[in-house]
Automatic annotation (TrEMBL):
Segments of skewed composition (Low complexity): 21-30
Family: Belongs to the short-chain dehydrogenases/reductases (SDR) family.
Region (Disordered): 1-30
Organism of this sequence: Cladosporium halotolerans
Gene Ontology molecular function, alphabetical: oxidoreductase activity, acting on NAD(P)H, oxygen as acceptor; oxidoreductase activity, acting on the CH-OH group of donors, NAD or NADP as acceptor
Lineage of origin: Eukaryota, Fungi, Dikarya, Ascomycota, Pezizomycotina
Protein name in UniProt: NAD(P)-binding protein
Keyword Ubl conjugation included in the entry's annotation: no
Pfam families: adh_short_C2
Start-end of Polar residues biased regions: 1-11
Keyword NADP belongs to the record: yes
Keyword terms, alphabetized: NADP, Oxidoreductase
Amino acid sequence: MTANELHNGPQNGLPANDIQTTSSETSRPTTSIQLAGKVIAITGANRGIGLGIANSCLDNGASHVYSIDIGETGDDFAAVAKRFPGKLHAIKADVTNEDTVTAAVDQIVQEAGSIHGMVVNAGRTKHKPALDFTREEIDQLWSINLYGAFFCARVAARAFIKLGVKGSVVFTASMASYRPNKRVPSAPYGASKAGVRNMTHTLAMEWAQYNIRVNSISPGLVNTAMTYWVPQQPDWEQQLKYYGGMPRLAEVEELGGAYVYLLSDAASYTTSIDIPVNGVIGIC
């Protein structure tokens, strides 16, 4: 059904399937979920979830993936880079400083010729009772998880608009944005990730006019250095039986498919959504 039909009904009394369509309406959407020829930037991809996303992007044909990270790379990063010679790169930048992120994206465009996707993944967590949080601890969380996320998305959008690219921004949110982790709550962390999901919807609305799509992924419990303690809890097996769902943590690579889809042209009409990837486990 055409836009005119939605408002006025079929034109000239003809059935909808007899109405001529424009060339843009008859062009075939992309149905292959792959990233061939795309240049993807991922913040916080020197390790953990970000590196798993980078690996998935390269496995699905991305021409170049850039990690924008304040830290150093390690053995895990080197192993992925060895699998994809000349395709995985690291640029040092502080996501809480918009100027350094702008410089990083400018470098990507200069080296790779363009940028097509930005995964806003860098973040931090801290779990303690709300009454015990210091102002400094809250500022540290929100400066990366909220300010940093906003800055990185905005830098990417400006680059997409300048280059005339139909870009994709994908935030890493969290299941903690939906509900608290009862065992280790963190009101400031959950609030920051809920802010990311709201940011997703608002920026998607604002930037649709530029053909920029904005979505988010909400991981549940993922097997990273930050969650090493989770399966070490003495009642972990009992928790899994109680909460249900898949009885294990996710591996970082298991998140990649959702990111690849949202970055791909197969998601050309997908914007302003969040995809929970949590194995139906009833805890964050």
